[in-house]
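Q: Could you write out the predicted structure for this multi-component system? I'm mainly interested in how the pieces pack against one another.
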Amino acid sequence: MVRFSNKNKSIVSQYEKPECLQSSLKTENRLLVSGGATNPYQRSFEALSLPMMGMMDDRAIKILSDIQEGIRYVLQTKNEYTLAYHGTGTTGMSGVLDNMIEPGDKVLVGVMGYWGDKVAKIAQRFGANVARMEKPPGSRFYLTDIEAELQTHAPTILFLISGESSTGVYQPLEGIGELCNKYNCISIIDVVATVGQQPIKMDENKIDVIYFNTQKGCGGIAGLSPVSYSPRAMSKFRKRQTLPRIYQTDIKEQADAWFITMPKDSPHKAWRHSFSISLLYSLREVLARIVEEGIEKVWERHADIDQYFQSRAEKLGLEHFVPKPEDRLIGTTMFKVPTGKDGYKIESYIAEKFKIDVSPGLFVNMGKVLRVGLFGSNANLEVATSVIQALECALNSTQTDL
Ligand SMILES: Cc1ncc(COP(=O)(O)O)c(C=O)c1O
């Protein structure tokens, strides 16, 4: 057989093999406490290497249903339209906006940092008429502020970030849903930086749409974005005159793919796009890990560690970026870089010496703060103590350029 001979020009590569890919990947263990992705729970991490199965398999369909139950439990909701998009939290963000916005819809966005600003810009891309209500970095909205803006703008959608991770601010959810019902608009809340860390209570707070990611407070691996839509949100969706612009996050298509609107014995009809079975395993296992501990215990653990960490950090002389204690996020803490010190250099010193990743801030306060995220598997005493020791060492270092 000469069919596959090298003389056959069509199977001869015209380019050299990339040098960088001629060895196996090597990584090292690092403590990820920057407030971005956390070190995953072992159970969620190990699930990635479980044997694969096809999505037409009954057992795969059962995994989808387990995940839906887990998301409902974590968000404290009974919403039927609950599932996970493929993609990170930004996919959830764009997806829920796309499903809820019809061109010309008035959307009121609470901007108190980087993420609110991003949402306002994405909403504009979907043709929304965006009204921004703003608070300076480090502060949040009160119900009276929100009600006044709802009266002024009469939006069809109110969007808030419950954890503005770029500033370390917590936006409480109590009363938001009531206000949205009163002013006849849909509430969309980003809980990326609060889920798993502090109570969300979607149904009790009458929130219409929520999304998050899997690599922060949940303690999983990035790549899926859980979402939940209330009956009110679905009713707005069903009245649409136009289709959502992004196919892969269209909630109608996804409801078929996740067997909400499709019988479980019709997997071939339900299929919309490939699912990552390994990421689904991993999310199932992280949710099972939360169920095993119990959501109240998970919230309690995060609050306890947060308190411990903050009091130890305050003793080091670190000053909070968010002035009011009640406005601070649980699990993501932001300190001002002490006068005369360099935030970027402290970050690299801790990374190099201790193999611990903290963050020197994001966009609005880059270089001016030190952000530490103790959530998911890292919400424990041992990790909190290691981070304090690293910070102490960096702050007391006699290295002149720190
Ligand atoms: C509040 C908030 N919303 C949305 C996102 C976007 O999520 P992802 O990075 O998973 O796309 C982040 C990420 O850090 C976030 O902190």
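A: Regarding packing and overall arrangement: The pocket of pyridoxal-5'-phosphate is lined by residues 36, 88-90, 93, 115, 161, 163, 165, 190, 192-193, 213, 222 (CB under 6 Å).
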